[in-house]
Amino acid sequence: xxxxxxxxxxxxxxxxxxxxxxxxxxxxxxxxxxxxxxxxxxxxxxxxxxxxxxxxxxxxxxxxxxxxxxxxxxxxxxxxxxxxxxxxxxxxxxxxxxxxxxxxxxxxxxxxxxxxxxxxxxxxxxxxxxxxxxxxxxxxxxxxxxxxxxxxxxxxxxxxxxxxxxxxxxxxxxxxxxxxxxxxxxxxxxxxxxxxxxxxxxxxxxxxxxxxxxxxxxxxxxxxxxxxxxxxxxxxxxxxxxxxxxxxxxxxxxxxxxxxxxxxxxxxxxxxxxxxxxxxxxxxxxxxxxxxxxxxxxxxxxxxxxxxxxxxxxxxxxxxxxxxxxxxxxxxxxxxxxxxxxxxxxxxxxxxxxxxxxxxxxxxx
Length: 365
Prior knowledge:
Elements: E1 3-4, E2 9-13, E3 20-26, H1 36-46, E4 63-66, E5 68-69, E6 72-73, E7 78-83, H2 105-111, H3 129-145, E8 149-157, E9 160-161, H4 172-180, H5 188-203, E10 210-217, H6 231-239, E11 245-250, E12 268-270, E13 276-278, E14 286-287, E15 290-291, E16 296-302, E17 312-316, E18 321-325, H7 336-355, H8 358-364
Antiparallel strand pairs: 1-2, 2-3, 3-7, 4-7, 5-6, 8-9, 8-10, 10-16, 11-16, 12-13, 14-15, 17-18
Helix pairs in contact: 1-3, 3-7, 6-7
C-alpha cells in the first residue's frame, strides 16, 4: 500500500502528527556519493514560508539509519528518518465524530476503523510529501549527471495565468532558473498578482487552487514500457499520489477533444544537427507511452485547500445529525505554492525508475 516503484522501490511510513516519518529506498546502485546539500535544498523549497503558507514549520532534519557507508550508497536499503516536531494533535481531537469536508476523514474511518485515533489527516496528510522531496533530490542528482533535467512553474493560481513553456524548445537555462526559485514563474509580473490572489483568499478565511506545468528535457527516445508502464502511466500514478492533485494532462491534454488531427499531427523533420525532431509538440514528447526525444510536458491541477476557516457542513457520526464546523489547525491558503516543488521531485523519481529498468539501463548506461 505504501510502496511503489518497479526498479527503485520506495516505501513511506508515518503520519502527519506521528513522532517521525520514514523513507526506505531499494534498488539504488551502490557507490553513489549522496549530495546532501541538494537534498536539504529540495526540502527547504517545500518548507512553508511567510504569510502565503501554513504556520506549521518543520526543520526536516533527517537522519540516515541504513544504506550509506562512508558517504556512499552501499546497495542495501537506504533509509531516512524525519522527525515531526511542531505537532498539534489536539487540533484534530473530534475527527472521529465530525469528518472535515474535502478530507479523507470519512472514507478512511470506514475503510480503516482504527484511523479515528489519528490526527491531522494521518497517512493521508501532505506532510508525507517531505519524503518525495528526499527521493526526488537523489533522483535529480543521478539524472542531471545523465543530462536529464526537470523543471516546473506555477502556471496558474485562481484566474491568474503565467506564460506557458514553449513545447518545442524548453532550455536547460529555463529549467535551472525555475529549479532555483522558491516561487517559480516565467513572467515575474505574474508572481505579484498570484501572491495577491493567495493573500486575498486567506483574508477571507478561504483557499485557492492552482496549476503546475512541468517540463522534462534530455530524455532519450524510446523510454517507457508499454502498455502498463508507459511514461504517462508511471508519472500519472505518482502525481496522483500527491494529496490535492485532481488532474494530470500531457501535451495538449483535454484540448485534443476540440482539435482536428491535421492541426495536432506533430510532423517530423531533421534538425540542423541531424536529429529527428517534431515540428510541434502537441503530444508532450510522448507517443505510444514512449518518449520521442522532445520535451515531456505535463500539467498538474491542484485543488484549493480543504481546510478553511469558514463555516462548513458535515455530519456527526455518533449522533447521526447534520452539523456545521469550522476547521482548526494551521493550513496553506494555496497548496500549489509548495506542491510545485513536490511535483518536480515526483517527476524526477518517476523518470529515474524508468531509466533504471534492466533493458533501459543496458541501452543508456
